[in-house]
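Example record for the data management plan.
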Amino acid sequence: MSAEGADAAEVDAARQQKILSGFKLCVYHGGDSEWSRGECIFLSTVSVLDSTHGVIVYRNFMNLRDADSGKILWQDSEDLSVPDVEHEARVPKKVLKCRAVSRELNFSSEEEMTDFRLEQYVLFKGKPLEEWHFKFGFVMPGSTNSWQSVLEAAPESQMMPANVLTGNVMIETKFFDGDLLVSTSRVRIFYV
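Corresponding structural encoding:
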């Protein structure tokens, strides 16, 4: 690697570490179809600054809904984006019976992001099963945003049962601002 390439890699690594330095999480209080933000806690100091883009992002919560009824099936405010850790999520197995699932990601950003996007890979026993790409785009500074995506289920004849999937499915999510890989999150799914 050339000296210029090494310098650019160091700058990207430093920017990545700054973006990952912390998240503000909010405690979830709610029923089947409503949520309300409870007390917000800081797990670590947020210092997501970068001389080029200046990015500060907080992940407030994420939920999964039955896309047809709008009923929340699962919601969590745990920080599942921390890299180098295998996270676990316990998701109701009834989510597998939905024709389509709506995923909502609520996040706040103190600074502008020009091209916020993510790539998700669903792995079954370590082998690729599905791949999804989502683009949010421009994020206004000082904003709180809800990002909702609809995931359609495979035909019933192609669905694996929950007892086969549970503990064997890993969702790998890569977060980007433009072309810069900010973080890679790995979440093992248990169907309960």
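Summary line stored alongside the record: The longest helix spans residues 3-19.
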